[in-house]
Amino acid sequence: MLVSEREVDGPSGLAAVERVMEHGAPIAVHLRARLPTRRLFEIAAELASSAAWTGGWLVVNGRPDVALAAGARAVQLGRTALGVKETRRMVEACAGRLAIGASVHDAEGAFRAVRDGADYLVPGTIYATPSHPGRAGSGPAAVTEAVAAAVRAAPTAAPTAAPVLAIGGLRAERIDEVVEAGAHGIVVGRAVWSAPDPARAALDLRRRLDRRWDGRDTDTGERTGA
Questions:
Q1: What is the rounded distance in angstroms from the CA atom of residue 91 to the CA atom of residue 68?
Q2: β-sheet with 57-61: strand ranges across
Q3: What is the average pLDDT value for the chain, to the nearest integer?
Q4: Which residues pair with 31 in a beta bridge?
Q5: Which ranges in 103-226 belong to alpha helices (H)?
Q6: Alpha carbon separation from 72 to 56, 69, 96, 172 (Å, rounded)
Q7: CA 177 – CA 146 distance, rounded (Å)
Q8: Rounded to whole angstroms, how far apart are CA atoms 218 and 70?
Q9: Is the pLDDT of residue 225 over 90?
Q10: Cα-based torsion angle of the residue sequence 7, 3, 83, 96 in order, rounded to the nearest 10 degrees
Q11: How high is the pLDDT of residue 224?
Q12: Core vs surface per residue 147-166: b (16+ CB within 10 A) or e
């Protein structure tokens, strides 16, 4: 679940995010807020504590330093962030532990990110969304391409390829399409925050995703991700 400064910069907003985390548990919160470093750390530290309590994850966007200091589970790297290799070196130099996610936009980027050590991929934009005006969605095929690239790039000793999470214009009725294309999960923003009851919306999305995975288990006899 994407969270920006609009959702968290203030006591009532932070409490609303924590309600969603509690009622939709377990979910991951991707903190993508443009805030001064001190304020970003304060918010991240509180959300990391809430995530640990609810069995979820906190993912900090582009700031491995803040993620480490706040006790987050992961850092998400976009186009302007440190590379995967550089981020891994930083985390190891600090004797810390962070999962590293990479935002990717084509199969080549997905292959390179996994080769460099990314733990999971977020390809997008899958469907057109107001957050990226004028950009057409790439469609579920982009998920399939990212999955194939992750398999090709996976180290020989790896038990599975890096999981792929679809982002961009995701709504409940589109979950089946992206899971069928190979997605292990989805990343949403408006689908939660534009709903009359964000906590209920988050829970409904997670349940629908869980049901789709259960159906995929029945169809294929195995589960490749969660």
A1: 8
A2: 2-3, 28-31, 57-61, 74-77, 99-104, 120-123
A3: 91
A4: 3, 60
A5: 107-115, 141-153, 175-180, 190-193, 198-220
A6: 10, 8, 11, 27
A7: 15
A8: 39
A9: no
A10: 90
A11: 30
A12: bbbbeebbeeeeeebbbbbb
Segment 39-66 shows an average pLDDT of 97
Number of H helices, E strands in the chain: 10, 8
Q: Is the pTM of this model over 0.85?
A: yes
Summarize pLDDT for 121-165 with one digit per residue, the tens.
Answer: 999 899 988 877 777 789 999 999 999 999 999 987 777 889 999
Q: How many CA atoms lie within 13 A of 101 on its CB side?
A: 26
Whether a cis peptide bond, with omega within 30° of 0, leads into 87 is no
Q: What is the pLDDT of residues 1-24, one digit of tens each?
A: 999 999 998 878 899 999 999 999
- Give me 219's structure tokens: 């169809």
| Residue 28 phi, psi dihedral angles, 5° rounding | -105, 135
What are φ and ψ of residue 94, in 5° steps?
-90, 5
Angle between helix 141-153 and 107-115 (nearest 10): 30
Residue 204 has pLDDT above 50, yes or no: yes
Rounded alpha-carbon distances, angstroms, from residue 49 to 72, 143, 147, 225: 9, 32, 32, 25
Q: What CA–CA distance (Å, rounded) separates 226 from 224?
A: 7
Residue 181 to residue 51: CA distance in whole angstroms = 29
